[in-house]
Every structure is written in structure tokens, then in C-alpha cells.
Amino acid sequence: MVKKTVPITMLLFVLLLLWVGCTKEEEKEIYNNYSLYGKWHLISYGGGFTGQFSNYDREVITWTFDTINHKVYIKNKRNYFGPNAGIYPYELRRNDNDQILYFNDSVQGILYINESELLYSHVGLLATFKR
After folding, report:
1. 81 — pLDDT class (breaks 50, 70, 90)
2. Which of 67, 77, 94, 122 has its CA 20 to 30 A from that of 104?
3. Distance CA 119, CA 48 (A)
4. Is 91 helix (H, G, I), strand (E, B) or coil?
5. Which overall architecture, per CATH, does domain 34-130 show?
6. SS3 for 1?
7. Which of 41-45, 50-54, 72-76 is predicted with the least confidence, judged by mean pLDDT?
8. CA-wise closest residue to 51 among 99, 19, 14
9. Under DSSP, is residue 19 helix (H, G, I), strand (E, B) or coil?
């Protein structure tokens, strides 16, 4: 039972730090569309009821955002939770303090972005991408 509660506690702690640690000036950077630009590597995914996380090596699964043409290029060398490899038009829409990610006008999840890390919340699970 302890093993299952530790990852959930850690996840809640990280989310609390993200929520508390932002000043108004930092919030502008977090929601800046151009901070999304570039290649992101999936490094971990999981959470939910089990609290289990899977770790990924760099270059196994990448999302590359072209913020000028509003396209995301997804490459994956193994099956995973997310969209199949391909090119998708994307859009970010704000809902209160959240940025909602849409592919082909379909909701994908919530993004939290800083300079080197992208957190992607999808159906109660959390994916962490690094530049």
C-alpha cells in the first residue's frame, strides 16, 4: 500500500508546487504559445488509480510543435498512450487557468509549460516531456 501512495503523493506535491509557485509574471511565460515551440521528448507517463509511472528514453516518443503553422509532428518508436505517429493541426484554448490542447478540433488534454518541461494531463494521467 505504501508503494502506491508515494507516487500519488509526489504527483500531488508537484502539481501543488506548479500552482503555488507561479507569480503573475511567470504565468505569462507559462501560457506563452511560443514556449511550446520545438521538440519535446516523453520521459514519463502514468499516475491515475495505480500511481504507476513508465519511463521512456529520449527519442522513443517525441512531439515537435511548429507554433507558426500550428502543427505537431508526433514520432513514436513503440506503442504508448497517446496519438499515433503523424502530423496533426493543433490549437490551444484557454479555459480559466488551463490551456486545453486540441488536435483536429478534438480535446486531447491540459498543458502546463515552462522553459524546459511540458506536463500533459490526459484522462487523469500525467505525461512529462522535456526539451
Report:
1. confident
2. 77
3. 15
4. strand
5. Beta Barrel (2.40)
6. coil
7. 50-54
8. 14
9. helix
> Would you list the domain boundaries of the chain?
34-130
Residue the block writes with cell 509549460: 113
**What is each CA distance from 59 to 20, 32, 56, in whole angstroms?**
32, 25, 9
pLDDT at 28 over 50: no
Cα 122 from Cα 83, distance rounded (Å): 11
d(CA 12, CA 102) in angstroms, rounded, equals: 25
pTM (2 d.p.): 0.70
Distance CA 86, CA 6 (A): 35
- Please count the helices (runs of H) and the strands (runs of E) in the chain: 2, 9
Cell numbers 500533459 correspond to: 120
- In the predicted model, is pLDDT for residue 10 greater than 60? no
Nearest to 38 by CA among 101, 129, 123: 129
- What would the grid cell of residue 17 be? 508546487
